[in-house]
Structure formats: structure tokens, C-alpha cells
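sry for the spam today, last one i promise. C-alpha cells for design, 162 residues
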């Protein structure tokens, strides 16, 4: 509209710019229906090209975030298992059962130092079994999905839950 108003300014120098008409007049005068359709077509093509570039990029970043979160959950379970085994080797018993988050460490040293603190957005649940073993389950729920990974000391197996 601004470009068309400027074009009209050059056509009628005797009328002041404010008296020449409204934006509607600038948009409708001197343009055919065909010109308007071409302008809309150009805008549509530009938006389609931008969407064709942006959408695949968004989905690839989301897939990468999901893979990183899955790896983070797996690492947290393995570190927890290692910490449990270290405590068992040092004290003869496993640490108490519990639910651990980024603000609550899994295990503390006897001198009060932290052995392992779970990652952000990862919740670890541990349980000792009557047979003298333990299980570790980790879960992470983020925008990229919910991921679960676990360990059972009785079978010495790690498993991912769908």
C-alpha cells in the first residue's frame, strides 16, 4: 500500500498526499485483479519455501534431543549401579532404597561427599531385593518423550522400557 501511495504521489502533483485518498484507494486503484492474484501467489510461494526449510529442521532437532535424553537416562542408571556396587564393596550393604533426583544424591560417602547426583529431569528409583540384590529404574519425561531404563542385579541385565 505504501509503495502504491508513493506511485500515486508522482502521478498527481497538484493534490497534497493526504487528500489523494485512503489506503484502500491506493490498493485498488491502478491494479487489476490479476496483479493482486500474482502478489498473493508470490507470498504463498515464499511462505511454502520457508516452511519446507523449517519443518524438517525442527523434526531433526527433536529427534536429536530424544536421542540425547535416552543416552542421559542410560548413563544415570549405569552410574547409579556403579555407586551401589562401590558402597556394597566398602560397607557390606547396599544404600537404602529411595527416589533420587537432581536435588537428592543417590549415595553419599561416609565423609559426607556426594558419590552421584542424577541429571536434570531424570528420576531414579532404587529398591533392594530380599535375595540381597537391587534394582535401579530411571525415568525422564521431557518434550521429546518419556524414556525409561532399568537394571536388575539378580540377572545382571539392563533393559529399556518402551
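last one done:
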Amino acid at each position: 500500500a505504501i509503495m502504491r501511495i508513493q506511485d500515486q504521489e508522482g502521478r498527481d502533483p497538484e493534490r497534497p498526499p493526504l487528500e489523494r485518498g485512503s489506503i484502500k484507494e491506493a490498493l485498488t486503484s491502478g491494479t487489476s485483479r490479476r496483479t493482486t492474484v500474482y502478489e498473493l501467489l508470490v507470498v504463498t510461494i515464499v511462505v511454502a519455501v520457508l516452511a519446507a526449510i523449517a519443518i524438517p529442521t525442527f523434526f531433526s532437532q527433536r529427534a536429536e534431543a530424544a536421542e540425547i535424553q535416552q543416552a542421559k537416562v542410560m548413563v544415570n542408571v549405569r552410574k547409579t549401579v556403579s555407586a551401589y556396587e562401590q558402597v556394597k564393596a566398602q560397607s557390606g550393604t547396599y544404600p537404602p532404597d529411595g527416589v533420587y533426583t537432581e536435588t537428592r544424591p543417590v549415595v553419599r560417602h561416609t565423609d559426607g561427599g556426594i558419590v552421584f547426583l542424577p541429571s536434570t529431569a531424570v528420576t531414579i528409583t532404587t529398591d533392594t531385593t530380599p535375595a540381597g540384590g537391587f534394582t535401579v529404574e530411571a525415568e525422564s519425561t521431557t518434550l521429546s518423550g518419556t524414556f525409561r531404563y532399568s537394571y536388575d542385579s539378580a540377572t545382571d541385565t539392563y533393559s529399556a522400557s518402551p
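Residues 33-91 form the longest helix (59 residues). ok im logging off now
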